[in-house]
């Protein structure tokens, strides 16, 4: 894999048709923003760390958000997917250690996690609680939008450090 593709990112509508559409559109915008920040970079660039002692990297953010998508996965009743945590089966430890030879795997894992999220909640009520939890699907959407927005802010700084690119 030489570089990651830069996706197109449509603006969410100013007047969404309903609450569900607004939540889905804003989350998709944030998901695409993350990939936009990674677009055109090589695995080596994606693995560059921010500023010591931080271990934060764009590739690490992608790996982290693959796992964070699991908030939605609980709705499908399927077993957890490993999403390449530290590349060790069964490990649930974070995303600080990245392997540039697995950058394509990390992107594929992220995309699979997002696809699973979409499928797991399709057609479910925003008022439906997550199995075994007190969180409603509405709360999870809001939390995920917040989570992505925070990490996309980190991604802005990382990308600027890598090649000077700024902006959305």
Question: Can you walk through the features of this model?
Answer:
By secondary structure, this protein is mostly helical. It has one domain: dinb family like domain (Four Helix Bundle (Hemerythrin (Met), subunit A), Up-down Bundle), CATH 1.20.120.450. The chain has helices at residues 19-38, 43-46, 58-68, 70-73, 103-121, 137-163. It is globular. The relative contact order is 0.18.
Q: What's this entry about, in short?
A:
This protein has 168 residues and is mainly α.
Integer-rounded radius of gyration = 16 Å
Shape: globular
User: What is the domain tally?
Assistant: 1
Number of DSSP strand runs: 0
User: What is the makeup of the main sheet?
Assistant: none
Q: CATH topology, which one?
A: Four Helix Bundle (Hemerythrin (Met), subunit A)
> Which CATH-level-2 architecture?
Up-down Bundle
SSE pattern: HHHHHH
The class by helix and strand makeup works out as: mainly alpha
What percentage of amino acids are in beta strands? under 5%
Helical fraction: 40-55%
CATH superfamily: dinb family like domain
CATH level 1 name:
Mainly Alpha
- The averaged pLDDT comes out at 89
Unreliable segments of 5+ consecutive residues: none
C-alpha end-to-end distance: 24 Å
Count of runs of 4 or more consecutive helical residues: 6
